[in-house]
Structures are given as C-alpha cells and as structure tokens.
Amino acid sequence: MKVSTRVEYGLIALTDIAIYSENGKTVSAPDISARESISHKYLEQILLLLRQAGFIAARKGLKGGYALSRPTDKITLTDVLNALDNGILAEMEGEYADDGLGPVINDCFWGKINNELKSYTDSLTLEHFVELCRNRTPESWDMYVI
Amino acid sequence: MKVSTRVEYGLIALTDIAIYSENGKTVSAPDISARESISHKYLEQILLLLRQAGFIAARKGLKGGYALSRPTDKITLTDVLNALDNGILAEMEGEYADDGLGPVINDCFWGKINNELKSYTDSLTLEHFVELCRNRTPESWDMYVI
DNA sequence: TAAATACCCATTGACATAGTAGGTAAGTCG
DNA sequence: CGACTTACCTACTATGTCAATGGGTATTTA
Q1: Taking CB atoms and an 8 Å cutoff, what residues of chain A touch B129?
Q2: Is residue A77 packed enough to be buried (19+ CB in 10 Å), middle (13-18) or exposed (0-12)?
C-alpha cells in the first residue's frame, strides 16, 4: 500500500523522539532532520500536526525541542494515521443507484476490509515501533503480525 | 479506506457484466451506465482498461457489448486493483538515511500490512461478488471475511 | 445507409502531495 | 541587553492524480 511521506516521516519522527528524549531531554527538529534525512521545513509542518494532535509537547528556544506527551503505548498507529492521513482510514462515501450493485459491494467488502485494517492499526502502538528500532532484529518482526 | 471510483465502478461493471451476460449475450456500456448510474464516457475508459487487462472481451456494433473472457472465479480482487489502481497494492519506495529508523519501520510494518492486504484481496474473486449480489442477504457477508 | 456500439485521445477542474520560503514569537546564554 | 537557537505560522509552488467531459474514428448490425 502506498503511504504518504507525511505519515512515514511522522512515524519516524515520533519514534525518533521517543528514543532520543530520555531523562527529560527534548529532541529538536534539526536533530531529527539530520538523523533521519528529512527536509527540515517539511518536518516542522509534520511536527506541528503531531503537536496539535496531542502526541508531543514543544519547548522553544535554545535547548528546546519536542518530547512525547503520552506514554508510547498510548499512541496507536490509528491515532497517527488519523492525524496525518486523509485516505487510509476514511470511510467510503460514494453515491450509487439504489437498485444497482454498488451498495451491496460497497457495504460489504470495503466495510470489511476497513474493519480489518483498523483492527490492525489499533493494535500497533508507538511502543512497538520503538522496541523494534531499539533492537533491530528482523526475526522478531513476526510477533507484530495480526 | 478510500478507494478510487475507478476501482469501485470497475468492480461494479464486472459484476454487472457477469450477471447480465447469460447465454452468450453481451452487455453494452450504455446498459451498465444506466443500471448503475455511472457516467457513460467515464465507464468506457474503465471498460477499456478492463479489456486491456484481459478480463473482458468486446464486440462492436449494434447488439455489441462486453462479456467476461475468464470464469468469475479466475478474476481476483487483486487482479482488478492492479489494473485500475496505482496505490493500494503498490510497494513503498521511499529513500531513507541508512542509519536512521526509516528502513526498519518501513520494511517491517508496511511490508506486513501489505501482505495481509494482498492475501485478503487474493482470496476474493468476482465469483464472490456475483454470488453476493445475486442473493443480497447481508447475513451471509461474514463468510467472506479473512 | 443509418444507427448503435466500442475505441481512442485530448482537455479540464478540483484536489492532494511534497515540499520551499520567509517571517514571527519565545526561550537561552554570554 | 543582544545574539542565537528554536518552535510556530502562513503562504506559495510544482507535480501528479482523479474524475470526469467531449469529440472524433472504426466496426458491426438491421
């Protein structure tokens, strides 16, 4: 599935902040930008959205930066997708001929696929991402599958 | 999940053709357009893609139209999505800092979510859609879930 | 020959994405 | 106080996709 860079970068940024903000330290946008090779100004916009969504808190000025405002296990992939993406978790809203085949196909299959997807993204939290990135053992990936 | 109308209409059209093309009869675009309330000219483009993908055969002229060129159980949702959609089943292709967190998150979670999605769309065929639309019994929908 | 149909191509308006750019506000350190 | 660093906010642009619309050509049937 194609996912927007906004979501990708947002997820990377959150994970980066979670990992590098130990002992009350904050993580600055320039730091993230350099570590993860993300355009600084673009990253700022994404961090703004993440702050407005309540995932992170910011402090201005020298030695300023960002820190998580919730524990990692209280930020789900669903939350992040809702904050940064328009399409993935959106519902269908097409209008069809009532006597046509559209409503049947739509209500059933896309609804079901949506539920499956959402139950998957609900089950994944930032904690999983952090853990995954801490010890990058590809063998352990399977444990996060549905 | 937001799905393009191209996919929706294509799926509806295929199902419509499957249902209304019994005894070797063909189904014309104007007919489908009228039954399913889809713009005729837009539908034509979609039918063109479906024909080029090998799902349907066309006959021009009066009494012309379309018919399936494969049995309904040999056309999967994956096939249709590949023919009509760019994003849903596409792989990620972002470039990240090799020493950053991007590759880990990307390879694992989006890869897994992709596999889950694909195994779902692989399991659904036009036959299911046809059956579903023939006897519209919402109670039977559950049988098509993963 | 006339009508119906599929085929093909060009264009358009709306929208989202992926940035880029520049200025403002606030906090830190000398 | 003043330079510096950072977050914050707004605007703009370039590109691409979507969802059609429209026009014209080729083919088949009655």
Answers
A1: 105, 109
A2: buried
Question: What is the C-alpha to C-alpha distance for residues A142 and B2, in angstroms, rounded to an integer?
Answer: 27
Q: Hey, what amino acid is at B40?
A: H
Per-domain residue ranges of chain A: 5-88+125-135
CB atoms within 10 A of CB B136: 13
Cα–Cα distance for residue pair A15/A68, rounded to 1 Å: 10
State whether A112 and B11 contact (CB < 8 Å). no
Nearest CA in chain B to A140: B108
Q: How many CB atoms lie within 10 A of CB A76?
A: 17
Q: Phi/psi at A115 (nearest 5 deg)?
A: -65, -40
Can you give the distance from the CA of residue B27 to the C1' of nucleotide C2 in angstroms? 22
For the CA atoms of A135, A136, A140, A144, the dihedral, rounded to the nearest 10 degrees, stands at 90
Q: What is the pLDDT of residues B76-128, one digit of tens each?
A: 999 999 999 988 998 877 777 778 898 888 877 788 888 888 999 999 999 99
The top-level CATH class assigned to B5-88+125-135 is: mainly alpha
Residues 6+ apart with CB under 8 A from B65: B21, B25, B26, B27, B28, B29, B31, B58, B59
Q: Which nucleotides of C are covered by protein (CB under 7 A)?
A: 2-10, 16-22, 25-29
Per-residue pLDDT tens digits for A59-106? 999 999 999 999 999 999 999 999 999 889 988 777 777 788 988 888
**Number of CB pairs < 8 Å for A and B?**
140
